Every structure is written in C-alpha cells, then in structure tokens.
Amino acid sequence: MSSPPEKREALVIGAGLSGSAVAHSLAVRGWAVTVLDQAPGVGAGASGLPAGLAAPHVSPDDNVLSRITRAGVQATLKRAQALLHSGTDWALSGVLEHNLAGKRRLPATCADQHSTPASPAQIAAAGLPQGTPALWHAQAGWIRPRQLVAAQLQTPGVQVRWGQQVQGIARRGDAWAVTDAQGQTLGQAPWLVVACAFDSLALLQPLPGFGVPLNPLRGQVSFGHMADLTEGQRQLLPPFPVNGHGSFISGVPTPEGPPGWFIGSTFERNCEQAPVREEDHAANQVRLASLLPALGEAMARQFGPNLVQGWAGLRCTLPNRLPAVGPIDRARLPGLCLSTGMGARGISLAVLCGELTAAWLNQEPLPLPESLAKHLAAERFVRA
Hints:
Oligomer: single chain
Number of helices: 10
Number of strands: 21
Helix content: 25-40%
Shape: globular
Radius of gyration: 21 Å
Strand content: 25-35%
Largest sheet: 9 strands, mixed
Structural class: alpha+beta
C-alpha cells in the first residue's frame, strides 16, 4: 500500500449530504477542507428534506445493493449517534416495511439478523391486517438530513463558503482550480471532490474520457402538523416509521419546529426543476392509502390545501442505482474525486461514501470489502 498524500488539503463542491460527509471524513483524519456551495446556507438542495429514513434494501439473493445499503445504514446510524440529538434530530426507531409488491423477501441465509419477518404485534401496531406481508428492520430509523449536514460541516478543519457559483474546474500544475462564470478562481487545492448532485454533470462533461450518466430525480414530500390531527387519527398512527411504497413518519419536528407527519416521496425522472405541486400531494395521498390503508382513509382531509405542506427537491441517480464514489481517473485526472448518484438513498449511503472516499485518498483499509467497493468506484465510468 502506498503512503497517503503529503499535502492533505481538499476542495469539496457541494455542501449537502454527500459533500458534508466527505468533508467530515477527511477533516477527522487531519485534512484541511474547504467546501463551496452556491446556496446561502444549509439544506437548500435535496438535503433540505424535512425527514427521511435510514433503512436497508433487502433482496432474496442479498444482492450488491442490499449489502451496500446495509453497510451504509450502519455507518449513518453510527454518525448520527456521534453527532446528533436523539429524539429531535434522529431516532433508532426501527422501521416496518410493508411488502406491497412481494419483492422484498429476506435471503434464506444472511449474516445480518437486524432484518426479520415482522411479528404479529408489529403488524398490528402499524394498523395493518394480520397476515400482511411485512419485514421489521431493527437497525433503522428516521433522520432529519439538514441537522446531519449542519453537524458534519461544523467538524474542526472544515471551512464552508456559501454563495459560491462554481462554473468550471481545471487542473493547474499539481492542483485543481475551481472558477466562477467570470473565470475568477474560487479555490485551489491538490484534491477536489465533486459532490453537487446533478450539477456535477455540467462540471464533469468537459473532462476527457469520462462520462458519468447522471439523471435528475425530482421528489416531493407532503407533511402536516400533528396538532391538526383529530384524536381518532392519532389513534391510528403507527409508533414507528413504515416504508414500502414511499414512507410514512410521524412525531418528528417539522422545519418550523412543531412535530409533524410526513409521507413521500414521489419519483419523477428527467425533471430538472423542483416546484411543490398540488398533483403530487394527491399522489402522496394515494401512496399513504396503499401503505397504511386505514390511516390513509382517516387522514384524507389532511391533504386539503389549508392543512398540507410540501417540500420538493432534486436528487440524482445512476442506471444501476449505485453511487459513483472516489477517484475519477487516477492516470488522466489525478486528484479529482466524485461522490454523487445517491438517488433516493442519500441518507443511507452518503456517510459510507464519504468514508470510502477518505479511505481511498488516505490509502487506508476500505470500510467495505473490495468486492463491494468496486461497484461504487467512480472509475467504472472511465472511457478508454
């Protein structure tokens, strides 16, 4: 194994889940990290999602995505426990997965014992009929991504510069330079990590021999305040998050502060704008009705325009649903790394991808077996 770089300075473009995770992972290893973001502050992009889940993907054959998300969820929960306040920023609540399509079967043999068939008591607590196919993920829970991003950016060694409109990246000698639309240099360092979701595409396209097929994915969450629910509606709320066809979470602080309920997200591919739309509230109402039928029927009026609120954001995804992480092309583009393509799994994967990037740069043992890490490597998109 070669020795780690002597000059441990890095620029990170993007201060969302991915960029903040990379910045934290490098800074705790003694790196000086400058993060550039076009937004005025934390949570302006997809990381502004008011609440989401860290929960594993399961498959009968325990495929690559399942094994990677399982490792990712463990990394996220460990990070949350270290940096966040339990009960207000996150909770190891467990998650019940309503197996709507019948596809989420557990493998016959699996080293992970944290995902099991849901018990009759858990199914009943969710308000679902006995016999409903469901799984229980014990090592899973809800997180407020904005709080995780803010905590990671506060790591000693991380400097954040907001309002930076990055337009281009270029290699200058032994360093990478980041410039704005006027060609002014916004920052320069031996190492550059591009972690700005779908905006990464415009920065990477001019580079020789690299084509990462990023696609935008718009998602909308509908939510409301717990205080607006009737006693009858409250009685039907599950005591833990439920996912399957989207996810339902309740009792978690809304962006304004008071506790709320959340259902979503919608999935709209090849959409580069993220307005909140009335038709997506209707789609989320249908989503709740299929996920938790009794609750969905009881909460129908909560989707009225005077009660429901919405949040929409853009994620970005890759064809095989796995992120692109780490060095892009060590031979032609030395010092340039990527951490993007998390899709709808940013909460479950970003922390792991930050650790993986830092391990590659620091020449450390990887946090994943090499056989799994290669499926995430950004270098898989290098063209001959």
